[in-house]
Amino acid sequence: MDYMKTAVVNFKTDSSVKQKAQAVAGKLGIPLSNLLNAYLHELAATGSVHFSVAEPMTEKMEKIIAQAEKEIAAGETSGPFETTDEMFAYLDSL
Predict the structure, then answer these.
(1) Which residues, 6 or more positions from 78, have their beta carbon under 8 angstroms from its beta carbon?
(2) DSSP at 83
(3) Among 50, 53, 47, 45, CA closest to 20
(4) Statement to judge: residues 3 and 42 lie in one domain
(5) How confident is the model at residue 15 (pLDDT cuts 50, 70, 90)?
(6) Residues 41, 66 within the same domain
(7) Tell me: the pLDDT tens digits for 21-70?
């Protein structure tokens, strides 16, 4: 069985970033070092790394979405527009 040769990579980061990252990794059940190693593997293999973070829904955003859903259900929306000129004319009239 082949074992991976290991190397130590040290880098500096803000302590609060490290704590938050460890918390996220913990929620996923994965040690932070494993996640960092996976990012390095992806970078080495593809030449790129993709990051995404789902932002938590805020109370304000929930209210805005609820209002928009009510307006949609009541038919209180603008458009659809046949052309961009028609859309801009509508926006100018507001």
Answers:
(1) 90
(2) S
(3) 53
(4) yes
(5) very high
(6) no
(7) 999 899 889 999 998 998 898 899 999 877 776 778 899 999 999 999 99
For residues 36, 37, 41, 44, the Cα torsion angle rounded to the nearest 10 degrees is 70
- Residue whose entry in the numeric block shows the structure tokens 């009239």: 93
Parent domain of 80: 59-93
Per-residue pLDDT at 67: 95
> Are 33 and 75 in the same domain?
no
- Three-state SS at 77: coil
80 upstream amide cis, omega within 30 of 0 = yes
Instruction: Let me know the angle formed at the C-alpha of 77 by 76 and 82, rounded to the nearest 5 degrees.
Output: 140
The encoded tokens of residue 91 equal 């926006």
What per-residue confidence (pLDDT) applies to 56? 80
| pLDDT > 80? residue 72 | yes
Query: Assign residue 7 a region: left if phi > 0, alpha if psi is -120 to 50, beta otherwise?
Result: beta
